Write a sequence for this structure.
């Protein structure tokens, strides 16, 4: 998170200064990115540039591209402010006093907005002031389930940021980062010239690590991995991409999660590093409350206008999942403004779906894992009677009030479980005779599934009438037609039918 430490200790730094250069002619910016995605390092880099520390950047792109001028910098990192202990207003006052002392300035004001304005005024006597605010929304996110405290902190932030507009002539540059844009925070309503670069094509890779950056900056580490993992470089790169790539803010440029990537190179082992640093308890609660179908990514469409601002009292799940890094943009239609969201990679999808299923089934991740492992063994060995019994146990754990009596609900939950089992599953597969509900492929079997509310015989009949199996005859695997009938009254599997093709 500190570029000075990274450079001085000769650690790996992925050079983002060409992106930063494009920011320097502007004045007010906001960038939203998930936690542990390089925001603080970006702010640290901006700070050293505006402090005029040219030699720190000797081997970086920006070194000979700008005029190096020292500006007074006010740097506030709300993730380290201590606001949970001392209160937000006191925390802000302490940071402002520290900054004033560093520059030898005496402040007379006691009220934090007045103090902030006075600090800007006195520092600007030397040169215009640079203001860097990291994790501006941390005091809101920390109390997101305590509406009264969150509203109080929002009011403090509103008063604090209202100072900026009146001091515009004294400010050279202002950069804010956070995870999301909350409404009723004055910085987003009063600063007409604030440029939100979150979804900008130009700054899509300003944080995160691109494929080119990975293979260049970590070339020496990639050379060592085949020996450590007993695999080829090509296979390892493909696995790294599967686990940690896939994040995008424009649907075109995709980047790796920097935190997971660095942990992977440290341990030489694939694991859910980023996910493990923050369990999405609130998001699971919202998913259950809003009954969103997060199991089937084809349903995850939103309009980009939903990302403009969030109300603490009315959180919308899908935009929040995107801003927090559990979903990302896979496709972007600039004409309509609609975005196709999906899980960015294997790490996030596997971990989030496991927690989502555990939340719905009201089981611990350990209990869920055991049941899923049993289902996996049933399918792999074509033991369908036991598979059905375990599937019934799975549905039986779901709270009744969460279940809508619709075929699509059962279909979607089944899809989520199959994804967790690690099998290839494709839903709503188009053929020239109709649409198959789901196709599952294991090493030896291809299961063609049709779901119906009611009798499974109708499901099998539809598979046969439409000749869905024809598409898979050439794959040299045993084809199993699998009809599942869901009972709306019991809210579980009712009847089932199978037919094996020669």
């Amino acid at each position: 998170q500190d570029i000075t430490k990274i450079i001085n200790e000769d650690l790996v730094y992925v050079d983002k200064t060409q992106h930063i250069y494009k920011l320097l002619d502007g004045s007010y910016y906001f960038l939203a990115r998930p936690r542990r995605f390089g925001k603080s390092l970006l702010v640290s880099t901006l700070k050293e540039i505006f402090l005029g520390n040219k030699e720190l950047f000797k081997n970086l792109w920006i070194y000979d591209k700008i005029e190096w001028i020292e500006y007074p910098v006010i740097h506030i990192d709300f993730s380290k402010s201590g606001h949970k202990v001392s209160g937000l207003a006191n925390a802000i006052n302490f940071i402002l006093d520290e900054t004033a002392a560093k520059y030898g300035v005496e402040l007379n004001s006691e009220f934090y907005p007045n103090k902030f304005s006075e600090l800007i005024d006195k520092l600007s006597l030397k040169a215009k002031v640079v203001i860097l605010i990291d994790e501006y929304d941390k005091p809101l996110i920390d109390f997101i389930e305590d509406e009264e405290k969150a509203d109080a902190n929002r009011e403090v932030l509103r008063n604090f940021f209202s100072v900026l507009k009146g001091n515009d002539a004294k400010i050279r540059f202002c950069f804010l980062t956070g995870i999301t844009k909350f409404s009723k925070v004055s910085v987003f309503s009063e600063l007409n010239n604030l440029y939100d670069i979150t979804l900008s094509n130009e700054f899509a890779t300003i944080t995160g690590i691109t494929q080119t950056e990975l293979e260049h900056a970590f070339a020496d580490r990639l050379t060592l991995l085949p020996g450590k993992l007993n695999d080829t470089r090509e296979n390892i790169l493909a696995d790294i991409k599967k686990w940690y790539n896939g994040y995008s803010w424009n649907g075109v440029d995709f980047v790796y999660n920097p935190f997971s990537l660095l942990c992977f190179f440290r341990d030489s082992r694939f694991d859910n590093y980023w996910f493990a640093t923050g369990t999405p308890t609130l998001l699971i609660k919202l998913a259950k409350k809003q009954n969103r179908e997060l199991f089937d990514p084809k349903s995850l469409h939103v309009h980009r206008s939903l990302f403009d601002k969030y109300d603490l009292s009315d959180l919308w799940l899908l935009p929040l999942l995107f801003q927090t890094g559990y979903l990302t943009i896979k496709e972007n239609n600039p004409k309509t403004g609609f975005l196709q969201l999906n899980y960015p990679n294997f790490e996030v999808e596997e971990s989030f779906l496991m927690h989502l299923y555990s939340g719905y089934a009201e089981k611990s991740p350990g209990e869920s894992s055991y049941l899923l492992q049993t289902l996996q063994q049933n399918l792999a060995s074509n033991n369908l009677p036991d598979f059905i019994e375990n599937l019934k146990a799975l549905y039986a754990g779901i709270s009744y009030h969460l279940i809508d009596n619709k075929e699509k609900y059962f279909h979607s939950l089944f899809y989520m479980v199959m994804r967790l089992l690690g099998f290839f599953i494709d839903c709503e597969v188009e053929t020239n005779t109709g649409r198959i509900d789901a196709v599952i492929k294991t090493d030896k079997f291809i299961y063609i599934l049709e779901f119906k509310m009611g009798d499974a015989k109708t499901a099998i009949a539809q598979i046969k009438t439409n000749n869905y199996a024809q598409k898979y005859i050439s794959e040299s695997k045993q084809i199993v037609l699998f009809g599942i009938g869901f009972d709306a009254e019991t809210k579980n599997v009712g009847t089932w039918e199978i037919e094996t093709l020669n």
Summary: DSSP finds 21 helices and 13 strands in the chain. Residues 208-361 form one domain. The longest strand covers residues 478-487.
